[in-house]
Each structure stands twice: as structure tokens, then as C-alpha cells.
Write a structure and sequence with these properties.
This protein is α+β, with helices and mostly antiparallel strands. The protein is 33% helix and 17% strand. A hairpin with a 6-residue loop joins strand 4 and strand 5. The radius of gyration is 13 Å and the shape is globular.
Amino acid sequence: MLGVTSGDLFVPVLTYVFGEAQLDGKVAVVSSYRLRDEYYGLAPDAGLLHHRLVKESVHELGHAFGLLHCHNYLCVMHSSTGVEEIDIKTERLCTECRGKIGIVV
């Protein structure tokens, strides 16, 4: 199950997170709060927000399916500490992560 919220998310060791999931779990959550350009004082961009939400949703669901962070900066499973990194990565799993998900599922 994937939950989407407009509220800000954080965990005890980090000031904020874009999303959170239990590894090999059944639930994940993503937040649009820091994915919106308005948060950074920019004009709203609904298309960009949509792409960011898709990427972070796939990322968190990947964790729920047992995937860890990936070293490939284009892979959706790459860890992102800022929206700039989210914008760089694709909405897809890299070949290595696709292979792992095949093993997990």
C-alpha cells in the first residue's frame, strides 16, 4: 500500500525525507511537501511535481519489495537528498535493480 501526503515527513536521524518505507514491508508513504517548487520559492510546476511524485513512489515501493539504494545515479533506487537529484534520475529501475526485483518477487 502506498500513501501520499502533503505533510512534511522526517525520521529521527534526518531533518526530512521525501518518503519512507519498511524494507520488505507492506506499506510506503511519500510526501509532496518538499517536492513542490513552491517550497523553494519558485512558481508551481504541476508536471514536474507529478514526475517527482512518480519517482519517489516507485523508489519507496522498491524498498517495500526489498530493494536497497543503488549506486547508479540514474536509477530510481538511487538515494536523493535534494530535489535536484530526483530530477536527474529516471522513473525506472536500472538493469541491476531489475534483476534483484526478479529475485525478490
